[in-house]
Amino acid sequence: MRTGAPFKIAVFADLHFGENAWTEWGPRQDVNSIFVMNTVLRQETPGDLIPFQRHHFVIYLGDVITANNIMIANASLYWDQATSPAKDRGIPWASVFGNHDDAAFEWPIEWFSTPGIPPIHCPQTATSYSGEECSFKGTGRLELMKNEIKNNGSSSSYGPRNLWPSVSNYVIQVSSPDDQQSPVAFLYFLDSGGGSYPEVISSGQVEWFRQKAEEINPDSRVPEIVFWHIPSTAYKVVAPKSGIQKPCIGSINKEDVAAQEVETGIMDLLANRTSVKAIFVGHNHGLDWCCPFKKLWLCYARHTGYGGYGDWPRGARILEITQKPFSLQSWIRMEDGHVHSEVVLS
């Protein structure tokens, strides 16, 4: 982060690039999603800010693509499109996997002929990116991450090998350029599964977090912020029953929490760490609230992409970290420029 300047993070959730890739509708939604991201980044970074990349960051919070709708093996082509707004601006980014990012291809019902047999070759539009015949094997988490980290702007990581096929487990240190060795905050990323992996944060991931935190933040003096895609069962506990009322902050509460399959201890660990300020998830497109849970906050992002279910207006959650004294604030920036749901999370 730049000296004296707040460190700002734009969280883009549930973009769902490649959805209905065999139709005209699908690619058009990807264009719309890029417009949302470009608009948010432009509105949150007015003027000529130099060096740009030192105090801005983008997080892609899972379901970057809808792999079960993508009929080519190289789904990373769609992934690269999704991350292009950050890359084109020289803003570093990081990503975490959601339940659709490496899901198996699902044959569209309209492909089936009268005898019930799908065509051997997929539609012409499906091969427009690479010019090669379609493959339905999909692209796994490791391959997607391998492709992403080739980009100079990506801060993502494979994570520990012993946790694979749960891949996007890693931590990023936010520091001031005046003192690169002294962290201002730690950003933790956890793979909450889905697709080729159960929808769970495993006990192995919990132990990894515990060990990593003891290694880099043993006295819990440095604030910690956590990101994953599928909400934990704790989100069900704090979810507003109808309208969003204080102490919760938000604008839409249009569906029930769709939580992970099981809780294996991550919430107990985080709730007992005084350094953990907030957890951010996506997955539920019709929820954008933040609610307190014990000593931390449980927050949703905002559905950013035009892919995926729901027709609620699109936007992005913004986080702002200030250093001295430490402060974590958040709000939601909508595609039309409107700002709402401002909340102090520290």
TrEMBL record:
Which InterPro entries does the protein's record reference?
Answer: Calcineurin-like_PHP, Metallo-depent_PP-like, PAP14/16/28/29
Matching entries from SUPFAM superfamilies are given as:
Metallo-dependent phosphatases
Task: Give start and end of each Calcineurin-like phosphoesterase domain.
Answer: 7-285
Mind telling me which Gene3D superfamilies this protein's record contains? Answer: 3.60.21.10
Q: Any coiled-coil ranges, and where?
A: none
- The membrane-spanning stretches of this chain are none
What's the name of the protein? Calcineurin-like phosphoesterase domain-containing protein
Organism, as annotated: Flemingia macrophylla
Q: What is the lineage of its organism?
A: Eukaryota, Viridiplantae, Streptophyta, Embryophyta, Tracheophyta
